[in-house]
Sequence to fold (302 residues):
Amino acid sequence: MRLFLSTFGLLALVSVMLSSCLDNEVPVNEAEEQWKADTTVIGAYIRANEIPALKDASGVYFHITELGSGFPPKSTSQVRFGYKVYIMGSTVVLDENDEALSDIMDLIPGMRIGLSLMPPGSVAELYVPSGYAYGTATLPTIPANSNLKFEVELISVTIPTSQLNQLGADTVALDQYLTTNSVENVIKDTTGLRYVITEEGEGAIPTLYDKVKINYTGKILSNGNTFFTGSNSPTPNFDSRVINYIHAFQAGLTKLKVGSKATLYVPSVLAFGDQPVTGNGGITIPANSNLLYEVELVEIVE
Fold:
């Protein structure tokens, strides 16, 4: 049964995180108050039961019980996964499927958020505020404003042939660029990322789930145009966990010690792929653009 994993127009989403134009959307202030109440209840449940879960900025709590490998799904990915779903605090299984296949955007927001934090092969518990599940809708076995618990295994992420072909073309272009420009001390990662550590730090190496402060400048490799320069660190709306960043940063930052500086030569597939993006100052990053990032890993934020 797909009822518990597809939106079917039932969601009243929390306005501070997502927007909706559904007929049953609750007023902004009411949704925000429900979100605050939900996340308070979930946090208390997590602490009372001593669950070593982390809180996403969305309010979804996640506990990785088995960590897989590779990159988590993107918003355009198709995913294969198994799940069980419960009303939080109950042991009654409302729905389960050992192997479901879906476009990630067809899932409820809480599942999308949770799966985006999981490399393939990972197993996790997700604690989802009602606004990221079915909100004010009353379903046969789910009362309105119910917080849900999902036990999820991300079996695999479908990688289209076109993306594999693009990655091959990207890495050839990157290697040609590095040779032409006589770039030395290049480390070739199996993901397709190429990088040079320009200054070695002495601190710890972050995990995917560590919050980090980074300084970085991003440039389009083909023309050198700078589309971003600045820093990122945790805020109320962005955790700045390594796994929150593009795949290239996930691969690169987990190779660096705190205090390190590096230049990342990034295949488009590990950045923004076939979607054009507008950076700072209105600079457009064309589709399938290889990028260059100069990165400093400043600290792991506790």
Summary: The chain has a mean pLDDT of 91. The radius of gyration is 21 Å. The longest strand covers residues 148-158.
